[in-house]
Amino acid sequence: MDPQFLGLLVAPPDPAFGLMAAFDADSHPKKVSLIAGAYHDEEGQPHRWLTHLIDLARSLTFGSDITNRLSSNVASLQTVSGTGANHLAAAFLSKQLQPKRVFIPGPTCRPRGNAILRRRYGRTERHHHPQPCAHNPTGMDLTKSQWIEVAELVKEKHLFPVFDSAYQGFATRDVDGDAWAIRYFSERILSDADSKFPGVCVAQSFSNNFGLYGERVGALHLVVPRGLSAEEAKSQLTLMARGEYWNPP
User: Fold this and answer.
1) For residues 86 and 79, what is the distance between their CA atoms, to the nearest angstrom?
2) What is the CATH classification number for the domain harbouring 182?
3) Would residue 2 count as lying in a domain?
4) Is 4 part of a structural domain of the chain?
5) What is the pLDDT of residues 6-39, one digit of tens each?
């Protein structure tokens, strides 16, 4: 693993979001938030980062068992759908890992996303995955044995995979089966005794499987190797996201 990834510092808390966190922690029954000008829910609370949405999105991706064991090994945050998650992952990894070579899907349903990657990374090469299921536009999904081979290659070459999870539940009508590859890679990260298996990012979209095209609902999950904490990575991801949007839809 690149030492730059291991040496992340906790970003300073955003003043506004820090105040929001203090408001949430306050148990006073008559507390009133005057922090942000935002839409409010039926109970008068302002809409902002939806913690329960992130918890459910993480559980849907990794399953309850792995989610419980991930604890401090995963950083998750809400994004502007899957495209925003891919963009944020690219921005974070290009800054922290500074990769010399990036493999991008070809053919792909995200030509604009690939254009972003090319501009950010410079040198890119084409490959055929990783979409964990219902590969768009080819429909050619890997078998479990093939994913196991890919995982071995990832470890051998010390690659950092980014899964574009846009169709969980579409391929087999089984949300657990469609997430098998993501969960297998995550298991390898958690069980790797020497921490040589790289981390993994999952860009998650709900546009297709929940029919939320116009709502732009998504999430980004970053799993770090065992023995490391995701706190630093999440603080840096939050800082980067904060510079692009106040809150996702």
Assistant:
1) 9
2) 3.40.640.10
3) no
4) no
5) 566 666 666 666 777 787 788 888 887 776 655 5
